[in-house]
Amino acid sequence: VAVPPQPGTDMTGICFRDQLWLNTYPLDRNTVFDYFALSPFYDYACNNEQLRLRSIHPLDASQLSKMSGTEYALSEVLEPHLFVFRKQKRDGPEKTTPMLTYYVLDGSIYQAPQLCNVFASRVGRALYHVSKAFNTAASKLEKIGSVDAENDTAAAAAATDQKTAKEVVDIKELKRMDHILASLQRKLPPAPPPPPFPEGYTPPNGAEAEKSLDTPQSENEAAIDPIVDQGPSTKRIK
Q1: Burial of 49 (0-12, 13-18, 19+ CB in 10 A)
Q2: pTM of the entire structure?
Q3: Is residue 143 part of a domain?
Q4: What CATH code is carried by the domain that includes residue 75?
Q5: d(CA 65, CA 63)
Q6: Up-side HSE of residue 10: CA atoms within 13 Å toward CB?
Q7: How far separated are the first and last CA of the chain, in Å rounded?
């Protein structure tokens, strides 16, 4: 069995969980430290362990502030799902230096990665995807260039056939449009009858109508429309 690394080193790749303990004791702010002390992340040389040996609650801030050295503090609590422990070095009652952060998520204990490691991982992942995208684009451009070279020779041979093909296509399109227009005309309803003549107007008979069509009107004589032309506006009945 491999020996676990010493607490304080990079242990972001491991996780601790004791299902038997969780089935016996529910996690809350009073029992979570005892559960955390079972994990390989716990340093037995901390001040909290000295308080446990003296039967004092290991998270008692009034007692920890009187000591110096490494200690664990419960910084965030969201019972019963999330508990965040901060490992820090105490140099005085009001002076502490953060070292590492651990969190208990639904009974599983993890070491939180440092911010610089998170940034390095995200930047490395972004550079990988950008490099992969450039390689894919370059390979596609090479294929397009080879295809264009092959198409240039075929385009010269097909240029002579484009004019005749275009004329054939235009004739087909013209016939298709004629067929569409004829089918639409057959679907249209018949033309409505002409409107009735106004009251008091007598239409000319056939002979007079033909005569009026054969004899052109003089330039001085204007054709009078019984509906539109009603004489000067001064004589109109208001």
Answers
A1: middle
A2: 0.52
A3: no
A4: 3.10.450.580
A5: 5
A6: 5
A7: 117
